[in-house]
Amino acid sequence: MLFNSLEFILIFLPLCVVGFYLAARLSQRLAIALLLLFSLIFYGVWNPIYLLLLGGSIIANYALGQCLQRNPSKMLAALGVSANLLSIAYFKYMDFFIETVNQALSLSLPLQHIILPLGISFFTFQQISYLVECYKGSIKEKDFLSYALFVSFFPQLIAGPIVRFQEISYQFLSKSFGQLDWNKVILGLIVFTIGLSKKVLLADNAAYYASDVFARAEYGLDINTAYTWFGVFAYSFQIYLDFSAYSDMAIGLALMLGLKLPVNFLSPYKSKDIISFWRTWHITLSKFLRDYLYIPLGGNRHGKNRRYINLMLVMLIGGLWHGASFNFVIWGGLHGLYLIINHLSNYIAKRRGKELLPNNALKIAVTFLAVTLAWIFFRAETFQGALHIYMNLLPITLQDALELIISLPIYMAMLLPQIILIWCLPNTIYIKERLETALQKASGLKEPRVFIPYILTALGLAMSIFYIFAGVYSEFIYFQF
Prior knowledge:
Blueprint: H1 6-26, H2 28-44, H3 50-70, H4 74-105, H5 120-136, H6 144-152, H7 154-157, H8 165-172, H9 182-218, H10 225-256, H11 274-280, H12 283-297, H13 304-322, H14 326-352, H15 360-379, H16 383-393, H17 398-413, H18 416-423, H19 428-441, H20 448-469
């Protein structure tokens, strides 16, 4: 079931929200149980058999967490983390490992053709963080329902954000849990609609152009330089808007239920360097890798060289986390290299007392271009497909150069709405905070500060549903991870 499907918008979501608040009037425990039931239904719709995997993972990790709370054994914590990583390795990387061994040793071991369970990387990482915090003594919670809902909560179950137990468990147990607050419901609907509109009206539109260019590259077809650049930019906009949309919708859905999820996306294409980019793109994954990998490796505590090695290792592992392909590893390696260059340039600038790129617009442009060029390996299905794209980016002949100058601006005009949204408009979190203040101060629906957002929300929702009725919608990119 997709957030951008009619079944979810018109059936699942209304039933969930209404049922939740009715159940909360009887008992908070009943509301938690009902929300857990809806979350399991949401996950089970994809493939009911994987409910056994999710349920078994929840029960095993909860039991292990309770043991760690009573006896914080380092060996037990290590075994728990290893077991979770092995489950990801089996489902996500077994065929990749077999293919690599076959190629390296000229063998013909049969592939397992394992179907990747949706969201396994996300709900497994959440449980790893839970075990680590139990070992550290940061968690003393014993309520199983709260833990099960923390893992399976449907707004963030499939593609994040990666939530820490401490960030949401207290909300399940607070006195205000389940109390109907119309301002939160309305605000959540507005944020959800912003995300839905981004996905259906903008991300999927950019996907059409990107898919054509990358498909041509995979088949080795001729693509002129201008159209290649257009496809690369289209994918860069697609993945930005697609992931931004999911993050918005997750926050909006949780807010409709009176809950707060951590921010996962904060205008990363407005970043002035790669360091800032990774502080604003997939924020919860970046924090997870920092806290549970980069810092344990030594972080920046053992000199610059060790820091650069740690950065590269973290980004290579982060790349592999995204998918079982050497293309993802190369993508991670590129970002590791970018981060090292960024830290070195900061060091040189500090020594010189002068920035290497003093103009902010130029910094943003260079950062965006570096990120966009790296996305090619992320998107391409094969290494050869990625190379074909890169080879077509450079104008070889005078005709290629003229086409690039003349045709690319025309192509990019088709992506003008995406460009305006990404660089000219405030991000959803800013809009949410402003609307939250406006709703609290508003004395009536006719006030412009609340009336206009209602109109825009209704218009965005209606247009999105129309496009969905027409069959113009697709899965979110991060569902495959």
